[in-house]
Structures are given as structure tokens and as C-alpha cells.
């Protein structure tokens, strides 16, 4: 048996994959990615593909950012690992915290707490939110409100605020006190076709839920500035500003889960900036280190930090953290990534070439009989496939159409991601205009081939 055949067999035999049936790899051919360069990847069979997935919303600088690679190697030579518990630290963690706070100073960020990924960053934010209220003497504020279709990772807290039952059912019962409200989703809602009216209605749903629960019991509202995994759902422009006001009115913290939207994907450095608001806590990961080494971070606003810093009760020690919080190699990768984001104006590129991608692929709504809705902003885009365009009847789960489109794209040299009825695109943020046009050419041909 060839080495490649052995790899494929061992993959099916020994490895359980996230979000997959353990036996799935025995039945379907996995995409085994062996090499990357720029915005391109090669599978084990040597087939070259444009990376429309960006690793998984993560490889923002592409696969050969020399500056990040060099920083990682230098750090491995200097100090491969040390912890940051209690009185201990190391230079890269300190430099990264200072750099991040500087970048987020306009957003009112005062401090940052590191972890190892997005789910960790969410868990940290949820726990800090509860502790914040306890320190302020509001001990009953333990509940969380979140959006349907939202995705906040897979730990028990994040899973409990997740808005998709697929990720919850097998692990219930979850955290008590988590409530879900309708997401402002223009294509699918029972209320209105007018975006601003929808923004108002959905913001009002938040206020009604807070009042119904009792404002003095609600710790935080958590949401993604643009929902990613749920199908790239972009809220109306008035939604986040209204949400900010409602949270302030009722003393509820606003947690922005920017694991996907952080560091430029929407064309703005942070998704909250897209909406002109600030949060109280931000969850960051993925693009923070361009996926080169796992890292998560929770950014803490001055408002929240002050309550911890000023505490006299002795309860403000944060009883939370991970062995690999601010892992030196990850911190080095992140420092180099942040420098590149600024030097290359990565958000600016995402905005410019993203606008071309959005404009071109929106045409599929007109040209393809089974594309119901194309939506997104910057370099995040979702194409929702439907059973019936006129009635917006959802594509049945049993349909093979999404997988067939993805296969056509793969054969033409483009990696895409299918999530339910949605084809999701999140290419590296350094993708060029030529590459984006190529991506659109290939995708148009792939949809046409399945017509
Ligand atoms: N939050 C959001 C918005 C995400 O999209 C993700 C992952 O895709 C997470 C949290 C969880 O991140 P991780 O998979 O790094 O734990």
C-alpha cells in the first residue's frame, strides 16, 4: 500500500473528527490537505486548490507568512513554553497584551486574558461576566441571552448559549439560565422584509426577554457581530447600536464573540467597529495568530476591568485560566500576525476584494435556480441553497446538491465549506483581486454544472 493510501486508511481507522460521525471517514473520501503556500493548498494527491475556507476562518495571512514563521522559530529557540499563572509571565505574553490593548484602545479595552482558542475565549468571557456582577453585589445576575443560529464554541458554557440544536442535543442538560431569542435574519423571519424595521423588532425582542427574565437576573447578552457558522447572517445596521443601548439600560453586559469577525474579516479591524459600537467583553481567536498556533484571548473593557481592579472584597481573583494561556510560541505568532495586519492593511484588503466577491456572487441569486440567498460582508459570504426559491422552502437535509457543488468546486481547484444548506466562503484576508475573481469564476462554473 502506498504511503498516501495508508494515510487515508489510518485517517478513517484511528481519528475521530470534529462535527462528524466517527465512521464517516470510512464512507466518504476525506480532503487531506498536505501543503500550503500563499492562498493555495495542495491535497495529498498533489491536487492544487485555492483555499476558500481560510483553514477555518483562521488563515488570514495565508499559508506562507514568513514573518509569522520566523517569529515561531525564534521563540522555539528562546523559550518553547512557560506558564502565566499567578506571579509568572514571559516577555511575549506581556508584549502581546500591551499590543492588543493598544490596538483596541479606541474600543475602550483595558486588559486582556489569554487562552488557547475560541471556545476558551467564550468560556472566559461568560465567567468574567458573572464574576463582574458578583463583585458589584448583584449576585443574582447569572443568566445569559443569545441568538438563534449563533455559534459560540463547544465548551459547556459556549454550547449552552449556542443557537443551533445540532451542537446541543447530544450533551443536554446544559447550563441553566441560558435563553435564546430570534436573530435579525432578513431572509428568514416571520416579521418583515424591511431591514431597519427588523433591527428594531429583534432589538425589542432582546429587551422583552431581559424584562421577562428580570433585569436583575441577566448577566450578559452574547452575539457575533456577523453570525458565521450559522450561515453568515449579517444583522441590519441599526441592530447592534440598539442592542448596546438596551444592555446599558438594564445593566446587562454585552459580549461580542469576534472569533470569526476579529482582525479584519468584515473589512474592519473588529466587527463591533463595523456597527460603530463597543462591547464590554470581546472573544478573540483564529485570526489573532492567523491560525499558525492555537491562541484565544478575551479583551476586557475599562468598565469591567475597573470593577475587578477596585475590588476590596477579596473575591476578584480570576479563578480561571489554562496551562497554555498565552503560550509563548502562540504569543510570538500573534505578535508577528498583528504587525502584518497593520503593515499590509489586511482589513482594507478584505473590504476591497471582499466587495468584488460579494457583488459577483450575489448574481447567483438570479442565475442559479437553487440559490435562494447570497449574503455576507467583507471576506465572509454564505450562499444558501433552497428547494424552492419562490417560497424560500429550505433545502432538505437529505439533499445532495450542496455536496455536489462542493465536489464540482474541488475538482476545479477550489476548496469550499458546506454547512447544512449553506456554502460558506472565508478565504485568507490577503487574497488578491485576481485570486478572488478566479474563485468567483470557479464557483459560478460549479453551480452551473449542478443546475
Ligand atoms: N465563537 C465563534 C463565533 C466561532 O466561529 C468559533 C469557531 O468557529 C468559536 C467561538 C469556537 O472557536 P474554537 O473552535 O477555536 O474553539
Automatic annotation (TrEMBL):
The keyword Transferase appears for this protein: yes
InterPro entries to which the protein is assigned, alphabetical:
Aminotrans_3 (IPR005814), PyrdxlP-dep_Trfase (IPR015424), PyrdxlP-dep_Trfase_major (IPR015421), PyrdxlP-dep_Trfase_small (IPR015422)
Question: What are the boundaries of the signal sequence?
Answer: none
Identify the enzyme class. Answer: transferase
Q: Which UniProt keywords apply?
A: Aminotransferase, Pyridoxal phosphate, Transferase
Task: Give the superkingdom in one word.
Answer: Bacteria
The GO terms describing molecular function are: adenosylmethionine-8-amino-7-oxononanoate transaminase activity; pyridoxal phosphate binding
| Enzyme Commission number(s) from the entry | 2.6.1.62
Q: Which NCBIfam families match?
A: PRK07481.1
What family is this protein classified in? Belongs to the class-III pyridoxal-phosphate-dependent aminotransferase family.
Q: Which PANTHER family match?
A: AMINOTRANSFERASE, AMINOTRANSFERASE CLASS-III
Report what the protein is called. Answer: Adenosylmethionine-8-amino-7-oxononanoate aminotransferase
The source organism is: Hydrogenophaga pseudoflava
Q: What taxonomic ancestry is recorded?
A: Bacteria, Pseudomonadati, Pseudomonadota, Betaproteobacteria, Burkholderiales
Q: Which gene encodes it?
A: bioA1
